[in-house]
Each structure stands twice: as structure tokens, then as C-alpha cells.
Design a protein that fits this description.
medium-chain fatty acid-CoA ligase activity; nucleotide-binding; 488 residues; 3 domains; alpha/beta; ATP-binding; ligase; 29% strand; Rossmann fold; 13 helices
Length: 488
Amino acid sequence: MGLEFKKGVRRMEHWLTKRAYLTPDNIAIELSNGETVTFAKLYEKACEFASKIYTVHQDGHVAMLSNNSIDMAVAFWACTYLNVPVVFLNTRLTAVEWQTQCEDADVKTVICSDQYKEDTQQLTLKAYAFSEIHSFRPTECTLITDMDLDLVCSMMFTSGTTGRAKPVIQTYNNHWSSAIASALNLGLMSNDKWLACLPLFHIGGLSILFKSVIYGMPVYLLERFDEEKVHNALMDRNVTIVSVVAVTCSRLLERLADGYYPSSFRCMLLGGGPAPKPLLEKAKEKHVPIVQTYGMTETCSQIATLNEADALRKLGSAGKPLFSASLQIQVNNTRAKPNQVGEIVVKGPMVTTGYYRREQANKESFQNGWFHTGDLGYLDEEGFLFVVDRRSDLIISGGENIYPAEVEEVLLSFEGVQEAGVTAVEDSKWGQVPVAYVVTVNEMVTANQLLAHCREKLASFKVPKQLYFRDQLPRNATNKLQRHRLRS
């Protein structure tokens, strides 16, 4: 069966069923301990798991609370066979936050890994650990054979840096379109193996599961980012692609030292915000194939990516929109000129249909067919995207715009600075002024040295008014810097 169009309904044979039929013996998931699961086995496990949760699932959505594992992947695919949307919960949140998100997303049942079972006792919802469900007897039920592409497949919450986190709707069509557009951009090789060290409860991680099944490609799955395990996988386990953010990329380059990755490793997909120029230059020196990308939960992962052919020529760019996507820069709802900074707006089949039951947020975010990302950037004369910063992180000091990422880049260019974060504090004279927080590799670096370095490289109003040394900076589960938490 292919794609069906019937009375406005678009259907496609279930992707995992199709993949298990096409390449049953190919590896779907590989773990660092050597354990593997074929597509046929993944299909079998998912169908069995679906028949076991059928009896305990009530009306409403299912929440998933787990770190990366085969069980998590099996449970997710099981829910798709029941046409039950999965709401992914961030394991780093508190029970109070999980409860709020479950209420906001109409969750009635929670499925979790065994390590979180005790934590779920604080919820007012029924929660079942993977091991409990494995012990159930299968129940006879009807599993779907084909997918309605317009139905909700999953939901994830925005980070909530500008207010209460919002549940983002992700349809099957969103996921399908994202996977296909990515393949058209990055290409698809017969030997591809994608390393997943980002959490599966984030879109950067979950999107790899879809790519695996749709492409017929193995995933090398790690529970979390571990630079030694990632390094070993890149060196010895035939991994060809890995998804990273700036800080994890930096740690991998340090681990690589004077070595080189195998020639089969073809792509370090770098997302999660603007990449500091010193990091990109360091990667260039080491011949690491970094491909910058731009995307978000609302776009089901990447929506713009820099082709390898332009990587060195357009250092720092996130590239051009993927084949089925459109992107503009707008200032006051008017298309910006080349090199003019404004809000990044996007549209395309991978873009969410909206936030779940957030009518006001949808009115604000969707205008004239465009989704307003809240991110700032510009397009150069050739149409290449350069992401500047989050609009909510913009510092306005005495009427001048200060982009934290620009200041952070200068701080990171000073030898000995490992991490940098810049945010605003209120100021009676200027309204806001920038302050910086840094992590250094040794105690030899002083505040006076760093501030002098900033004065050389930046306009005076951009130079941090205070600089603090920290052992670490606040980051979310994908290691993205959380600037709103810096001062705390």
C-alpha cells in the first residue's frame, strides 16, 4: 500500500510494519553493550507491548517518562499501533511540573521506565513501569494497519523560557515531512548509522527514531550524552552521523585532541542555537564535518541546514530552508532586506499545526500562514540564514540591541574559557545591561583579562558590566544553555 487520498484523508501503511516487511533482518537499534534489535523484532515487540497496554489505557493521551532505551522506543511505537498520541515528559522536571503538563495535555496514563516509578507516585494519574507492562498478559485488540497522516502522533512541551510551557502538536505528517526533507538535504547512504545521544523526549532525539524506520537505517542509541562513549562510537562503531549542540561538540573536539575521525564519519549535525565562531574554526582545523542546522520542537527538528559544500564558505550560517520548507525574516510583519536582523518566520509540512488547546498562543504565533519562531536572525544576499539569538534573550541597553550570543562568542574566543553565558540585569540608567557567567579550564584566567578582551572586540555598551566565574552553567536535557536561569 502506498499513500491513499480518500475524502480528504491521507493514509499510509504503518511505517514500522512496512519497514519490518522490507528489511526485517536489518538492525534498527544498537546499544553500546553490543545488544541489537532488528526491524522485525522491533515490530514484534511493539505489537506485543500494544496488546498489553490496551487494557490499562483509558481515554486521553499517554505520557512517556523515560531516559533513552529500547523499552522507550518499543513503548512509543506500540502507542502508534493504538493511535494514541504520546506526550513526552522531560525527566529533569519535578513531579509538580509533570502533573501540570499531564493536565495541560489531557494525559490519563503514564508509562515510565522503572527508575521513575517511585517518582510517579506523586502524580494523580495511573502510572505503569515498563517491567509491569511486560508482565501483563496480551489482550486481543485491533492494531492499526495504516496511519492517518493528519492525526496527532506526539506532543512535546516548549522550554517555557518566556512563560508557561506549551504542548506542541506533532502530526504523523509533520514527522514524515521532516524525515524526507532531511534526507533530501543531507543525503542517504547505504552505510549510514545515526548516533542518538540527545534525549528521545526532545525532538532532536525522537526525530532519529522516525528517520531510522523510514530510511531503514540503524540507530546507535545511548542513554545520555557521554563524551567517552560517543567518541568511541565515532571512532570504532561505524557511526556516520551524530546530532550535537555546541557544548557537547566542544567536549568531543577536546576529546579528539590531535586525532581524526574515520573517513566514513560524514556529518556532525550541530543545532540548538547559534554556534560560536571559535568552535567552528576549531572544528575546521581538525577537519570535523560540522553541518549547522536550525530547527525547533515546532518544526519537528531541522527546518534549515547548511550543505557541506557551503560549510567553510558560509561559516556560522544555518544554511537554507529544506526543500519543502519556506523561511523569511520579518520586521514589523514586513519582509526584511538582506542582512537586516528580524524575526525568523517559517512554514512547511513539518511545521506544527499548533499548540494543544492554546488558542491565544496560536493566534500570536501563526499569522498569514507563517509560524513566528521568536528567534532573531538575518538572510545574507545569497539567502543563507544566520541565527542571531532568541528574541526573549535580547538585551536592550539605552536603546541599543545586544545579542548575548555575540558577547558569548567573544568570551569563548579567549583561551581557557570553556563555557560562557550572557544575560541582562536591570539598570536604573540604561534600562538593562549585560552580565556574563563563565566556566574556565584553569584558575589563571581573571575577570580583568576577560573584560579587557571584550573591550578590544566589542562596542563599549556590549561589554559585560559584571563577570562571574562558575563551576557549570544551567543547561537543559539537550545541553542547551538556559540563559533565564543564569542569575539563579
